[in-house]
Write a structure and sequence with these properties.
Two copies of one chain form a homodimer.
Chain A: H1 9-16, H2 20-27, H3 35-48, H4 54-61, E1 66-72, H5 77-92, E2 96-102, H6 110-119, E3 124-128, H7 135-142, E4 150-153, E5 164-167, H8 169-182, E6 188-192, H9 198-213, E7 223-225, H10 230-243, E8 249-252, H11 255-267, E9 277-281, E10 295-298, H12 301-317, E11 332-335, E12 338-340, H13 348-354
Parallel strand pairs in A: 1-2, 1-3, 3-4, 4-5, 5-11, 6-7, 6-8, 8-9, 9-10
Antiparallel strand pairs in A: 10-12
Helix pairs in contact in A: 1-2, 1-3, 5-12, 8-9, 10-11
Chain A binds a DNA duplex (16 and 16 nucleotides) through residues 8-10, 18-22, 24-25, 28, 32-34, 37, 52-62.
Chain lengths: 355, 355
DNA sequence: CTGAAAGCGCTTACAG
DNA sequence: CTGAAAGCGCTTACAG
């Protein structure tokens, strides 16, 4: 049985005493088959364990029932959650996933990757790469040449006239900063992600808006750039303290940098949250057990993955493809983040008790 | 240009004034083509941007150049690292990846998944599912029926007569426990993973051996079962303290539970490492900035992913497939873990200074 | 409701 | 070194 030659539709047809055509109708659930015939063919299929060859099916149908997923940083929290959700939803809808990882955030090797995806005749491409540097320009140039529907996830909202789903990153910055101000903070610093990242800039933008809206002046020296790593969060805190000893709150643009900031606070003898409030972003599994437990901003990543698949499926099904012309702005959907309050930040009630 | 019909080999042939056959030779780098002809065809291909249809190629060759990867828990540290490494190595070697996620660890839905994989004519399957409960029996029963090479990753070493690559989990337990004892610990508890997991049992086994080898008696009540989550680590610590107030070291079977144990130590007023040494497993990105920084055991996960692809490629290339008969025990390779010493555990020198 | 024919885009022997 | 023919395993119109 091992390595056995696989059955073909022809053999099933012969065994059932019908044409291959009829077997095809049965396995595709076509309506026009006599119930009795259907049952007979079905019986043979079940007995023999016949499985249609998707390569052959793909060749005739001109589609592979596979979605190409291009991702950066599968090791990280966000991407891995999104990909997991995409896979589950895709499986649910009958798609396979062709996983393609990108190492750097530059557009090197992307041409090769897209070429592979086209070769494999994927039905659509989900592009889960953050907008970094010249990415946007690249997508704008090449995005429309792709012979299949493309869906942008996470970054590049409104870019290149392609549909997109992501998180409102400015809202993340606002949520975190408003919370810190509401807790009584007067000097709120921010540790950003790499400034070349669109997400990082948007979170910073939210911080700016909120600081300004509260009537404070936006001091540029309160902005320190990190690189998403724990260590960069720690170093950022030291620089911040040096420039602004009066600092009493930090918004770190992800949980790892928030952890670094908390660590730095411990090292320099600052109590969190009494001396320094800290808020992160992501709500990683560990966040609830940091010391102190981390206040952070949750992003609905699984929802994004699910929706991405639903939207692209819809695009695939639109035959003939509606002209996704420049005039019609494609849908851009941004989901709202959610604040998760824990002990690393002073809350209104708490601070009044403490003081 | 958008949604343009794709070129076929026939059109390239016509443009180059040769037969499709010759174009096929060129794109497959066959030797027997006149240099001049080769160049002419190549020029047409480059000018037109022709890309061969892998579905058609797969149909004729009987292989898809795709590897099926079945994974549990992509959200987690281990699996995401391994998958990332697999994808990179596979791309390097010309394979695409069909990603298939499993939700639970039971064998539900696995049949369906394998059926899909067969349908898609994958060249081989990399099975990165931990050995849990009846998994092993299931694999033993069905593993050999698969019509393609299968490679086990991470779990089920030596199971089902299939080749396997993983980590020596008993060595992880030994490494951690020896380190704790060397640091002067006299009462070393262990927080295990779920006892249905083979990995968890192996790490426990390493702990047992080491405790016994050091001349201590193995007290079963020092063994507390966790479920890999931070919270379970915290709860486990409380139970351990209750049963054994004299406890002075804990080996947590992953970093998250180690974090939970540290958290619980703080809560109960114990200093780490002075009162309680803690060691974890994984060396997640955050571990270096826990408070205190976590001593942990690193697993060479990327290496595992790379090797898995190399081995399965070799199996695929073996044509005709050597009889992988029951008599020949297939290769099982276990890589060695590595201890990463930080501040959460007393080291020999340190403890002598402290005391 | 069912089947014979043609074709999807390649590659594999087989001639020359 | 090159090409005409057949075929991979399906599905798509088209008859009946």
């Amino acid at each position: 049985m091992t390595m056995a030659k696989r059955l073909t539709i022809r053999e099933v047809a012969a065994a059932a005493g019908v044409s291959t055509q009829t077997v095809s109708r049965v396995i595709n659930n076509h309506p026009d088959v006599a119930p009795e015939t259907f049952a007979r063919v079905q019986a043979v299929i079940e007995k023999t364990g016949y499985e249609p060859n998707m390569l052959a099916r793909g060749l005739t149908q001109g589609r592979s029932h596979v979605l190409g997923v291009v991702v950066y940083g599968l090791d990280y929290f966000g991407p891995s959650r999104v990909v997991a959700a995409i896979e589950r939803q895709a499986a649910e809808m009958g798609y396979g996933i062709s996983l393609n990882l990108i190492l750097g955030t530059e557009s090197d090797g992307v041409g090769q990757m897209l070429s592979n995806l086209r070769s494999r005749q994927v039905d659509g491409i989900i592009w889960a790469i953050p907008e970094v540097g010249d990415n946007r320009a690249w997508m704008r140039t090449h995005g429309r040449d792709l012979p299949v529907p493309v869906m942008l996830v996470g970054g590049m909202a409104g870019v290149a006239c392609l549909p997109c789903i992501g998180i409102d990153n400015a809202a993340i910055g606002r949520l975190a900063t408003e919370h810190l101000l509401a807790g009584g903070a007067r000097h709120v610093g921010i540790v950003t992600g790499p400034r070349t990242w669109w997400e990082a800039e948007q979170r910073l933008q939210g911080w700016r808006e909120t600081i300004a809206a509260a009537g404070h002046t936006v001091d540029e020296s309160l902005i320190i750039e990190g690189d998403w790593t724990v260590d960069s969060g720690e170093q950022a805190l030291y620089r911040m303290i040096e420039a602004h000893p009066e600092i009493d709150a930090v918004f770190a643009s992800n949980d790892q940098m928030a952890l670094g900031a908390i660590y730095g606070a411990h090292k320099t003898g600052r109590r969190v949250p009494e001396d320094l409030s800290v808020v992160g972003v992501d709500n990683i599994a560990e966040a609830s057990h940091f010391w102190p437990p981390l206040t952070t901003v949750h992003q609905p990543l699984a929802e994004i993955g699910v929706m991405a698949v639903q939207v692209i499926d819809q695009m695939i099904m639109e035959t003939p493809p509606l002209r996704r012309s420049q005039e019609v702005q494609p849908e851009v959907r941004l989901l709202e983040p959610e604040l998760v309050v824990r002990d690393s930040s002073r809350s209104v009630r708490r601070s009044s008790i403490v003081e």
